[in-house]
Write a structure and sequence with these properties.
It is a single chain. This protein is mostly helical. Among the domains are: 167-257; 259-352, Alpha Horseshoe (Leucine-rich Repeat Variant). The protein contains 18 helices and no strands. It has helices at 2-56, 70-87, 91-115, 118-130, 137-145, 152-163, 169-173, 181-190, 193-206, 211-223, 230-235, 242-255, 261-268, 273-285, 292-298, 304-314, 320-330, 334-346.
């Protein structure tokens, strides 16, 4: 019995050793193959680089062929194009890069979107975006329509389609469940003038049920200081929803422009402290000197944030620092004196 056990364990050890040896041999063979592949790719990239640089510089039209096949060809193309993408900017460079990318990668990318793994598909979508491959628009849209999950692949399809200026994408941005405000802002920043205009048109009739898009749109056009949509944003000051009005006021602060003077006093006396605060910010951001008396009232507000905004924006007006000093020394309101002193210290002055 003892000899049988020894024999069994001896065979077991030999089998395990053999398995480990086989795995090691396979790993060595795989690594050797990878190193040869990387060496071939590096040599091909080195050969291609001078000619592709000439194309990017507008010195050559003909695109050189890649002397590789299969995955090595795709990976080499992606590597050199990614390098060029980071080295050049400007519209001419984008067009040159797109032309080369479409020559090298279109066939493989069409196959990948149809039959590739999730990882391969998402990487392909990223590269299509990076290289501005507009010729892939129909394939990306067809791929998008097949997405059941709202995951990163779904979102990347939307990014690509918006960057391509595909009008069909807007319908999906207004569908339930709505994308997040953060993601919608990202998409709006990618939109061309035509898509932004169509988005505004859709919001004119659908803003009641599509708050996320409305909030994102108001914010983005303000951050971009896009004057085309200033009237739309200012019109939102009359929306019955408080949150919409506050978003519009915040956006108008970015515009540093304001014409709805008849509404400003109402906001300064609103029951909402946020509206009172943003009325103060608007007066300072737009340099509305004629509303300095409104700021003088708001600096005595019961809410600290309103008082702070009033003091901060008094400082933006002509003679603002002197006015703060007068408030600090002469005001009957202790809160106003305190916040004026605080603002003077913040500005590097002295509160006496």
């Amino acid at each position: 019995m003892g000899e049988e056990m020894v024999g069994f364990f001896t065979w077991l050890v030999m089998i395990l050793f053999g398995v480990q040896l086989l795995i090691l041999i396979q790993l060595i063979a795989w690594k050797t193959s990878q190193l040869k592949k990387e060496k071939r790719m590096a040599a091909e990239i080195t050969r291609l680089r001078p000619e592709l640089l000439k194309i990017m510089n507008g010195e050559q039209e003909e695109i050189p062929a890649i002397g590789l096949t299969g995955s090595a060809r795709t990976e080499a193309a992606e590597s050199i194009l990614d390098e060029l993408n980071h080295a050049y900017d400007g519209e001419e460079a984008v067009q040159s890069l797109r032309r080369v990318a479409e020559e090298y990668l279109t066939v493989q990318y069409k196959k990948t979107l149809k039959r590739g793994s999730w990882a391969d598909r998402i990487n392909t979508l990223y590269f299509i975006d990076d290289f501005s491959m507009t010729s892939m628009k129909e394939e990306v849209y067809a791929h998008f329509l097949k997405r059941k999950k709202r995951d990163e692949e779904y979102r990347q399809c939307l990014r690509n389609l918006v960057s391509f200026g595909d009008e069909r994408v807007l319908v999906h941005l207004f569908k339930e469940p709505l994308p997040s405000i953060v993601f919608l802002k990202e998409l709006l920043l990618r939109m061309n003038a035509e898509l932004l205009a169509e988005t505004e048109e859709m919001l004119e009739t659908r803003r009641e049920e599509h708050e996320n898009m409305l909030f994102a749109f108001i914010t983005v056009v303000g951050e971009l200081n896009n004057g085309t949509y200033f009237p739309f944003v200012e019109k939102m000051l009359e929306d019955p929803r408080e949150e919409v009005r506050i978003k519009a006021m915040k956006s108008l602060c970015s515009y540093r422009e304001f014409t709805a003077f008849s509404l400003l006093e109402g906001f300064a006396e609103s029951a909402s402290w946020q509206e009172r605060m943003y009325s103060a910010k608007l007066i300072g951001a737009c340099r509305l000197e004629e509303f300095r008396d409104t700021l003088m009232k708001l600096i005595s507000d019961q809410v600290w944030w309103v008082r702070f905004a009033a003091a901060q924006n008094i400082a933006q007006l002509t003679g603002g620092e002197e006015l703060l000093k007068q408030i600090h020394t002469k005001s009957d309101d202790a809160y106003a004196r305190d916040i004026a002193a605080h603002m003077l210290v913040r500005k590097g002055g002295r509160a006496r």
